[in-house]
């Protein structure tokens, strides 16, 4: 870490396995959301820093792309072990930087980051390409070729989890990377740099450039020699990335926003649907792209479900993220908190009833009075055309709506510009299949939520994304697939 004129510690970029200051020497503050005060400084990297990172990655590519799969896997396994050995340090950093409960980071974010490396280490070792003999023509086989320097741009909601979801398959496939984590949450990416070095990853294979989207992010997207971009973030940013990379015909994977439906039929396992709906509504303060923010409940159980959901939401503890019993920490930033609050106001204007929450808790300990907290909020009484029921809020705010028929709820669910995920609650197997098949979403869960199998494709339909990652889909994305024909 460097020190700047400010008394806060400043992070450095990580290029060629060295920590270096941004070329322009500029930094900005990053905030601790639960206390509403700055806790570190982030390099405000520019095009020149991205160029340095690109040069390092480009120099490392010939060597790294020729290492055996076994050698790459060995390093990825080591990275996973090292992350796990520093679990508490990573979890505390993630919570401090993002606002989420330490316990959530300790049990979900960080273990999953380690698992990403372990999963793709195994996958690259055990995957085989296609081969086939066509009599009279020849024997064909495919080869996954490393592509080159890849740009990896990640958001703030699950910082290390989503960044490593990109880094692991990218380098497992023999590419090198220029990464840019969100400017709101750079801390665990910074810690990861020391892990990568300690694990023996050769210099230049992974380079970390910190800074804003308009600065470092756009410079990666517009770099003429970075042919592949994997991006997770908002839909509006995704559209800019498509436009800004178009002239270079870049290969893009875009994992974008959502407005996911949570469909509860009257024949569901009520308690299971209720408990999981509380989680899918409010886990990580509702700041998970997969959260079910539109709850549709079949009319016969609507009143009972609403009453119990409100009761459950009121019982959730909001506050000090370091306490084990805390369910919701702080929202990531003041701007985001204000945006989410503005949707609560909009909900009222649109005729909604705030069933619970809607404001900052009044009983926060002194130390957290300036934090960006919001009570879990449930809004009823809105019609499906309301903005609050259509736009992504990305906070602890859900709407609830009664439906009468299967066809109606399918139409309501699909009447969205997004198509990321959906949960369906029913004990009727035939209905489960029918509904799952009709829903326009990349991932449909029946009687569960966010159960992830990394071997399965992940990605969104419509404005929720382009492409799929996961399992061999990730290997295909991070490789150039070549067909070779040996003539008979
Ligand atoms: P964001 O789009 O504002 O930022 C994401 C990243 O892109 C950040 O690193 C940012 O600095 C960078 N960026 C911003 N503008 C850029 C530009 N013009 N060029 C290049 N990079 C740029 O998103 P966010 O607010 O950090 O994250 C929240 C969004 O992410 C939500 O919409 C959420 O649904 C979505 N998300 C989607 C998934 C998924 O898997 N589909 C997962 C997590 C989050």
UniProtKB/TrEMBL annotation:
Protein family per UniProt: Belongs to the aldehyde dehydrogenase family.
InterPro entries: Ald_DH/histidinol_DH, Ald_DH_C, Ald_DH_CS_CYS, Ald_DH_CS_GLU, Ald_DH_N, Aldehyde_DH_dom
PANTHER family: 2-AMINOMUCONIC SEMIALDEHYDE DEHYDROGENASE
Superkingdom: Eukaryota
Domain Aldehyde dehydrogenase: 24-484
Active site: 255
Protein name according to UniProt: Aminomuconate-semialdehyde dehydrogenase
Provenance organism: Entomortierella parvispora
């Amino acid at each position: 870490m460097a020190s700047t004129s400010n008394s806060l510690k400043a992070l450095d970029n990580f290029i060629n396995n060295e920590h270096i200051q941004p070329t322009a020497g500029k930094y900005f503050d990053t905030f601790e959301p639960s206390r509403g005060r700055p806790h570190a400084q982030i390099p405000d990297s520019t095009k020149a820093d991205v160029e340095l990172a690109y040069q390092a990655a480009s120099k490392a590519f010939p060597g790294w792309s020729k290492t055996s799969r076994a050698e790459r896997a060995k390093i990825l396994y080591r990275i996973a072990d090292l992350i796990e050995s520093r679990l508490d340090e990573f979890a505390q950093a993630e919570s401090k930087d993002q606002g989420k409960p330490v316990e959530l980071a300790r049990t979900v974010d960080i273990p999953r980051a380690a698992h990403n490396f372990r999963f793709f280490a195994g996958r690259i070792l055990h995957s085989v390409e296609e081969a086939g003999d066509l009599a009279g023509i020849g024997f064909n086989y495919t080869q996954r070729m490393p592509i080159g320097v890849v740009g990896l741009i990640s958001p703030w909601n699950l910082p290390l989890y989503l960044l490593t979801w990109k880094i692991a398959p990218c380098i497992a496939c023999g590419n090198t990377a220029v990464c840019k984590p969100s400017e709101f949450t750079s801390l665990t990416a910074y810690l990861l740099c020391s892990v990568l070095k300690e694990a023996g990853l050769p210099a230049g294979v992974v380079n970390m450039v910190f800074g804003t989207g308009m600065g470092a992010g756009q410079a990666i997207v517009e770099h003429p020699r970075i042919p592949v971009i994997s991006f997770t973030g908002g839909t509006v940013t995704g559209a800019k990335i498509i436009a800004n990379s178009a002239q270079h015909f870049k290969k893009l994977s875009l994992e974008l926003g959502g407005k996911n439906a949570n469909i509860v039929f009257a024949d569901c396992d009520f308690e299971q649907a209720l408990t999981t709906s509380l989680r899918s509504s409010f886990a990580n303060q509702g700041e998970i792209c997969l959260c079910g923010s539109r709850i549709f409940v079949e009319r016969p159980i609507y009143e009972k479900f609403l009453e119990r959901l409100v009761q459950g939401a009121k019982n959730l503890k909001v506050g000090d993220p370091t306490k084990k019993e805390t369910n919701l920490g702080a929202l990531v930033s003041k701007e985001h908190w204000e945006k989410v609050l503005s949707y609560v106001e909009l909900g009222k204007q649109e005729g909604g009833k705030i069933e619970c929450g809607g404001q900052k808790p009044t009983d926060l300990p002194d130390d957290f009075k300036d934090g960006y907290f919001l009570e879990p909020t449930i809004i009823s009484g809105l019609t499906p055309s309301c903005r609050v029921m259509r736009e992504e809020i990305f906070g602890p705010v859900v709407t609830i709506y009664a439906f009468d028929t299967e066809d109606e709820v399918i139409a309501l669910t699909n009447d969205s510009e997004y198509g990321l995920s959906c949960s369906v609650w029913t004990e009727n197997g035939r209905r489960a299949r029918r509904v799952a098949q009709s829903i326009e979403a990349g991932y449909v869960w029946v009687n569960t939520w966010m159960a992830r199998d990394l071997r399965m494709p992940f990605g969104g339909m419509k404005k929720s994304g382009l492409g799929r990652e996961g399992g061999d889909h990730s290997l295909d994305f991070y490789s150039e697939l070549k067909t070779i024909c040996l003539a008979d």
